[in-house]
Amino acid sequence: RPGTRLILQRRVPKAISQTFRGLTPRESGPPMRGFIRAPQNFLSGIALIALAAFAVWAIRNLSQGTLTSIGPAMLPRWVAVGVGLCGVILVIASFFEDGAPLERWSVRGPLFVCLGMLAFAIGIGSFGFLVAAPLAMVICGFGSNEVRWKELLIFALALTAFCIGLFRYALNQPIPVLILPGFSIEI
Questions:
Q1: What whole-number distance in Å separates Cα of residue 163 and Cα of residue 157?
Q2: pTM of the model
Q3: Cβ neighbours for 48, distance < 8 A, ≥ 6 positions apart
C-alpha cells in the first residue's frame, strides 16, 4: 500500500538516528533533554548532598558515642547521612527517569524567609516570643504575592499561642514570653 510505505520512510530514519545515539524511540512523553533527564531532581539532589555534607562538617567535633551511651552527634549525624542518601538517590534517578525541567524562580521568597528568621532571632531576645513569632511570620508573608493578610495574621497569632503553650508549658522550656523595658513576663 502506498500510504504505509510513506509512513515507514518517515519513521525509520528517526528511529535509526536515536538508536545510534544510544536512545530508544519513544511514542509519547516529554522530549529528551540530554544526559540529565530530570534537571529539577538533579539540582535538588545536589542541594541535599551539600546540606548533608555541611551538617556532618558542622558536628565534626561532637562525640557520637555508642548505642548504649548516645552522644550529642549521633542523631544529627545519622539524619544527615539519611538526607545525603536521599540526595544521591535523586541524582541517580535524574539520569534514568524523565522529570520536570528547571523553572524560573524569584529571589523574593527566600529573601523574606531569611529576613523573617533574622527578625525572630533578634526579636526573641529583645521583645520575647509573643512579639517575635508573629513578626517573623508576617515578614515571611511578604515573600509571596498570593498572601491573604487576614488569614496570615490569624494563623500567626494562633501558631504563636500554640507554640507558647507547647514550649513554655508542655515542654517547660525557659523562653521569654514577653519582654517589656525593665522586666520579663514569664507566665
A1: 10
A2: 0.57
A3: 83, 84, 86, 87, 90
